[in-house]
């Protein structure tokens, strides 16, 4: 990767610039996702629990996964750089606690940033900092056609 700028942590305005090409997607918008940090090495974002609950009042397990996959894919796309894009090829999630209110925050950290594959771990926590879910995603880097 020759564009070192994509590997620098973001200031609040830079997040918007990095998302302007691709956006966050319709599902992320419907879920109320907010991205506060975005680089190839680290991405941070959150979703509200309200509006994303299952019928018994817990944050839906799929909501954790949507937040995690979004963060991991966005970070991988920053790493991919111009003329390339990342697509998820594998994802695993382990839920360890349920959130019932507030927001859930995902912190995505790079494990491997290669020329053709990236792997990120995303730790999702509740407002009290308790781990609710751990997700690992692998993305494949492709050339735009």
Evaluate the radius of gyration.
15 Å
**Number of β-strand runs:** 6
Helical fraction: 10-25%
Largest sheet: 6 strands, antiparallel
In N-to-C order, the SSE pattern is HHEEHEEEE
Strand line-up across the major sheet: 1-2-4-5-6-3
From the N-terminal CA to the C-terminal CA, the straight-line distance is: 19 Å
Q: What proportion of the residues form beta strands (DSSP E)?
A: 35-45%
Overall body shape: globular
State the helix count: 3
The secondary-structure class comes to alpha+beta
Mean of residue pLDDT? 89
Runs in which pLDDT lies below 50 for 5 or more consecutive residues are 1-12
How would you describe the overall organization of this protein?
- This protein is an alpha+beta fold.
- It is 24% helix and 39% strand.
- The chain has 3 helices and 6 strands; from the N terminus they run ααββαββββ.
- It has helices spanning 12-20, 26-31, 61-80; strands at residues 34-38, 42-48, 84-95, 103-113, 117-125, 131-143.
- The protein has a 6-stranded antiparallel β-sheet.
- A hairpin with a 5-residue loop joins β5 and β6 (131-143).
- The longest helix has 20 residues, at 61-80.
- The chain is globular, with a radius of gyration of 15 Å.
- Mean pLDDT is 89; it is low at 1-12.
